[in-house]
Amino acid sequence: MHRRTFLTSATAAAATLAFPGVLRAQNPVRIGMPLPLTGPFAALAKDMQQGAVLAADELNGKSGILGRKVEVLFRDDQLKPQVGAQRTQELIEKEQCQFIVGGLAAHVQMAINEQTKKAKVLYVSTSQSDEISAKPDTSPITFHEALNPTITSRTVGKWVMENLGKKWWIVYADYAWGKQNNAVLTEINKKMGGTILGSTPYPLGSAEFSAHLPKIQAAKPEVLMSVTPGADNIAFLKQVGSFGMRSQMKVAQPLLWIAYLKEGGAELYDGIYGGINWYWELQDSIPTAKKFVEASMKKFNMPPGDYGAYSYSGVLEVARGSELAKSTDAAKVADALRKSPQYDHFKGKQWWRACDNKSFQDMWIVKGRGPAQVKGEWGLAEIVAKVPANEELDRTCAEKGLA
Amino acid sequence: MLDISLAALAAQVFTGLVLGMLFVLLAIGLSLIFGLMTVVNFSHGALYMLGAYFGFTLLALTGSFSVALVLAPLLVGTLGLLIERFLIRRLYGRSPDDPLLLTFGLSLVIVETVRLIWGKIGLTLDPPRALAGAVNLGFTYFPTYRLFVIAITALALVGLWLFLEKTNVGLVIRAGSRDPLMVRALGFDVGRIWFLVFGIGTGLAGLAGILAGPMRGAYADMGVTIIIESFVVVVVGGMGSLAGAVVSGLLIGQVVSLTTFFAPKLTEIVVFITMAIILLLRPSGLFGEAGLAE
Questions:
Q1: How confident is the model at residue B250 (pLDDT cuts 50, 70, 90)?
Q2: Does B216 contact A at CB distance below 8 Å?
Q3: What letter would DSSP give residue B55?
C-alpha cells in the first residue's frame, strides 16, 4: 500500500472512530437485539422478534426516532454468554447500533450488559434477572423492562401458599434464573410456614426428567413447583404427566409462557398455574393492550406473547427517551427516562424506579384452560388473579447495594 | 432428608433402563460402524434427530404411530446408505480423521437443513393414545410408553443378534470386523458389507430418534448431547464390541439414573467420571480388544 493512501484511509478511519455521530446523523437509528433464535428458547425469541418489529413499524409509521427511520437488527446469541457478548460487540461496532434491547436468558443477558457498559450504549434488558438491576451489574445506562425472579416468585409463591398447598417440591434449571427462583420460592415458603420436601436442580436445555420423578412421586408434595424454562417446560410437563403425577399433585410455575402453551397444547397445560407479565386477553380491559394485539393480528395473524410484549415496550421506551432527550446519547436518554419515568405501551401504567432503572408493572396469575374451555386458537389460559405493581415486591435499592 | 424406600429405588432402576436402552441403540450403531469400518460417525446424533423429525412428519401424514415407527428408521437408514455410497466411500484408506471431519461437517449441514425445513422451534410428538397413560407396577406408576420403548428396543436387539449370529451375511459381517483382509482374500466384497453396515447402524439411530420423540420432543440439536454420551458408552464398552455397547449402555443408564436420585448436581459429569474410572481399570473398555482402535 502507498504511504499516502495509507495515511488518507487511516485518518478517515480515525475520524470515523472519533466522530461517529457525524456518520450516524445521515443513517437510521439502529437498535440491536441479541436473542436465542435457535435452541430451547427459540419460540420465545421469535415472539420477541415480532414484538420488536411491531414497535419499529409503529414508530416508522409516525416520525421514527427524532425524524430518523428505526431499524431493529436481530442476532442469534445461541443461548451462550460468549456468543451473546460477541454479537453485541458486532452490533455496536460494526453495525453502529445506538441502542441494545433484548436478551432472554439471564446468564447471556449479563454478558450483553458487560459489552453495552463498556461501549457506553444504553441497554434495555428484557430478561428475567435479579442481578441486572443490582450491584455490581447494573449501571446508569442499564434499564430492566422485565419482571424478575424476586417479584414473580414472591408473588406466585405467596398465591400458591394461600390457594394450592404448603408442601412443595421444586425442580429448577441450574443457571442464574433458575437458582434465583429456587432461592426466593424457598424463602417465601419458609416465611409463610410451609415445607420444602425437596429441591432438585437439572441442567438447562435438558429434555429428560424421568430420573427425577420417582423420588418426587414418593415424597407426595401438594405442589410441584416447576422452574423449567423454554422447551424444557414442555418436556417436563409431559413426563410429569406420563408418570401419572398430574392427578396426585398441583403444578405451579413462577412463569408461564403463551408461546409454550401454544406449542405444548391445551391438554398439556390444563390446570397448570403460573405467573405472567401480560396476556393478550387483557385487551378486553386495557386500551393499549388492545392496540398492541390488533397490530400483531394484522401483521402476524397471531396475538403477541408475554415476551414479545417486553421487547415491544423496550423498543418504544428507547424511542420515548430519545424524543424526550432530543438525542440518542445514552446518558441523556437515561436521564430523560428517569426524569419522566411513567409510561404505558401495552399493559397499563408502568414506571422506572430511579435508583435501579427497574420497571415496575402489574402482573397476573393464570391457569391453563384445558381443551374443553379453550377460546379460539390462542385463548389457552384464564386469568385467576391480578397483582398490582408494587415496589415492595422487589428488593429495595439498599438491599441491591444501590442506596 | 427423604427416606430411601425400596420402591422408589426400583422405580429409579426402571427409569434408568429406558435411558440405557436409547444409549444402547445409538452406541450399537456407532460401534458396529467403527468396528468394521474404523469410521467414527459424528453425524450419528444428527441422524438420531432426523429419526424424530421423520417420525413427526410421517405421523402427521399417515396418522399411524406404528407406520411412523417402521418407516422413520428405514428412511434414516436409506439416507445412511446414500451417505456411505456418495461421501464416506471416497475416504476409505485415508486417515481415520478424514471421515470424522466429514461426518462432523455433515451433522452441521443436517441440523441447519432441519431448521430450514421444520423451523427453529421444536416439535411435540404425542405417543399413541393406547400408550399415553401410566401403568401401576405395584411399587410405582410407570409411563406405558416407556415400557413400550423397552420392549421395542429389546426386540430390535434380538433381531440384530439373530441376523448377525444366524445368517450368512451376519457371519461375513462378524468375520469382516475381525479381519477384513482375510474376508476379502476369501472373495467377499467388503465394500458391500460396509455399505450394509452403515445403513443398519444409522437406521438404529433413526429408531432411537423416533422412540425418544414422544418422551422428549423433537428439536434440531437434540442429538448434540446424546451423541457425546453415546461415544462414552462405546468407549466404556470397548470400541467395536457389540456386547460391550449393550452392557455399557445399560450401565451408563443406571449410573445416570441413580446419580440423579442421590446427587442431582453430579448428573452431568458422572458419565465422564465413570468413563475415566473404567479406562483406568481396563484401558480398552469392558469388552474391548487391545489395539483395535489404533
A1: very high
A2: yes
A3: H
pLDDT at B290: 61
Is residue A29 one of the residues assigned to a domain?
yes
DSSP state of A302: S
Gap from A370 CA to chain B (nearest CA, Å): 17
- Our CA angle for B161, B165, B167, nearest 5°, is 110
3-state helix, strand, coil in chain B (%, to 5): 75, 5, 20
* Residue B276 contacts residue B236 (beta carbons within 8 Å): no
A195 in contact with B at a CB cutoff of 8 Å? no
Provide the shortest C-alpha distance from residue A58 to chain B (in Å): 27
Q: H or E segment at B256?
A: helix B242-262
- Band of residue B95 on the pLDDT scale cut at 50, 70, 90: confident
CA atoms within 13 A on the CB side of B277: 8
Q: Which neighbouring-strand residues pair with A203?
A: none
The answer to whether B217 faces chain A, any CB pair under 8 Å, is yes
Contact across the interface for B19 and A208, Cβ inside 8 Å? yes
CATH number at residue A328: 3.40.50.2300
Q: Are A34 and A120 within one domain?
A: yes
Of A208, A212, A231, the CB nearest to B219: A231
Peptide bond into A136 cis (omega under 30): yes
Structural domain of A214 = 150-276+363-393
Whether residue A4 is predicted with pLDDT greater than 80 in this model: the reply is no
Q: Which of A40-44, A136-140, A361-365, B35-39 is the least confident region?
A: B35-39
* Shared domain check, A177 and A64: no
Model confidence, pTM:
0.88
Asked if A58 and A132 sit in the same domain, the reply is yes
Whether the CB-CB separation of B202 and B85 falls below 8 Å is answered with: no
pLDDT for residue B35: 83
Q: Looking at beta carbons, which residues of chain A come within 8 Å of B17?
A: none
Residue A231, min C-alpha distance to chain B (Å)? 7
Rounded Cα–Cα distance for residues B76 and B82 (Å): 10
Distance between CA atoms of residues A230 and A240, nearest Å: 16
- B6, B115, B120: best mutation site toward chain A, by most A Cβ within 10 Å? B120
- A201 in B contact zone (CB under 8 Å): yes
Q: Encode pLDDT of B188-234 as tens digits.
A: 888 888 899 999 999 999 999 999 999 999 999 999 989 999 999 99
The residue among A215, A364, A401 whose CA lies nearest residue B5 is A215
Give chain B's mean pLDDT: 91
- Residue B121: list chain A partners with CB under 8 A: 42-43, 46, 263
Q: What is the C-alpha to C-alpha distance for residues B190 and B56, in angstroms, rounded to an integer?
A: 35
Residue B139's pLDDT is: 80
Of the partner residues B12, B124, B133, the one whose CB lies closest to the CB of residue A244: B133
Residue A368 counted as domain residue: yes
Cβ distance B115 to A40 less than 8 Å, yes or no, reads: no
Number of folded domains in chain A?
A: 2
B124 touches chain A (CB under 8 A): yes
Q: Are A329 and A377 within one domain? A: no
- A196 and A59 within one domain: no
Q: Taking 50 as the threshold, does the pLDDT of residue A24 lie above it?
A: no
Q: What is the pLDDT of residues A76-103, one digit of tens each?
A: 999 999 999 999 999 999 999 999 999 9
Work out the minimum CA distance from B36 to partner chain A, whole angstroms.
32
- Shared-domain flag, residues A312 and A232: no
pLDDT, averaged across chain A: 93
Q: Is the pLDDT of residue A399 over 60?
A: yes
Quick check: A211 and B261 CB within 8 A?
yes
- Closest chain B CA to residue A203: B268
Report the residue from B2, B15, B265 with minimal CB separation from A211: B15
